[in-house]
Design a protein that fits this description.
Blueprint: E1 3-7, H1 11-23, E2 27-31, H2 34-44, E3 48-52, H3 60-68, E4 78-82, H4 87-96, E5 100-103, H5 108-135, H6 148-151, H7 157-166, H8 172-179, H9 183-197, H10 202-213
Helix pairs in contact: 2-3, 4-8, 7-9, 8-9
């Protein structure tokens, strides 16, 4: 059973989201503010976090930055909830490390689709990491802090930036928001990446990137 943490300061909203998820068979933990949410994430080790942006004590940006900075929660799938849908706000949230962004009031179908997609991406990434670890005899720990190692694959800086996020499970739309470009431009970069790496799909490209990012850096 997948475990989900819901961090939301509005009690009715928190209960409603938790109920929708529990009805789908998820184990749900809740927290009433960011500070409690961070502590709960450390203790419960959920498979995914759904977090409001505007909260007392610690806002959502503070939560995701804190969790991304700790080894145990650095790659935890993270979905922001907000009443604000401005593209600039979305880009800021993605730059802080969020994987998705849902606007309140949340529609049940949208919530479940986002949760299922992020959990599936996390499982796919973990499978790639495990495969690379097996191929490298264990001790494999990809470093996503910089795109520069990926330029050694014959990619431009911009292509390397795109691939860095793709390797972390981001969609073309996600990458577009993070890097401030159109989704069409992202697709063009992906086409160039496929050609240069000699692969036919994003999973193969991501696998190569993960292997490079897992090598010791001089």
């Amino acid at each position: 059973m997948k475990r989900i943490l819901v961090i939301e300061d509005q009690a009715p909203m928190r209960r409603n989201i938790a109920l929708m998820l529990e009805m789908e068979g998820y184990e749900v933990f809740t927290a009433e503010n960011g500070r409690v949410g961070v502590e709960t994430a450390r203790q419960k080790r959920p498979d995914l976090v759904i977090c409001d942006v505007m909260m007392p004590e610690m806002d959502g940006h503070g939560v995701v930055q804190t969790l991304r900075g700790e080894d145990a929660t650095a790659t935890l799938p993270f979905i922001f909830l907000t009443a604000r849908s401005d593209k600039t706000d979305i880009r800021i949230g993605m730059n802080f490390g969020a994987d998705d962004y849902l606007v309140k009031p949340v529609v049940r179908e949208d919530l479940l689709a986002a949760v299922e997609a992020r959990l599936a991406r996390a499982e796919a990434i973990e499978a790639r990491v495990q495969a690379a670890a097996a191929a490298n005899g264990g001790g494999f720990n990809p470093d996503y802090s910089s795109h520069e190692p990926l330029t050694g694959m014959g990619l431009t800086n911009r292509e390397a930036e795109v691939l860095l996020w793709v390797a972390q499970g981001k969609s073309n739309g996600d990458v577009a928001g993070i890097l401030g470009m159109s989704e069409k431009t992202v697709k063009q970069h992906m086409g160039n990446i496929f050609e240069k790496l000699g692969v036919e799909n994003r999973n193969a490209a991501a696998m190569q990137a993960v292997e490079v990012l897992g090598r010791p850096r001089v």
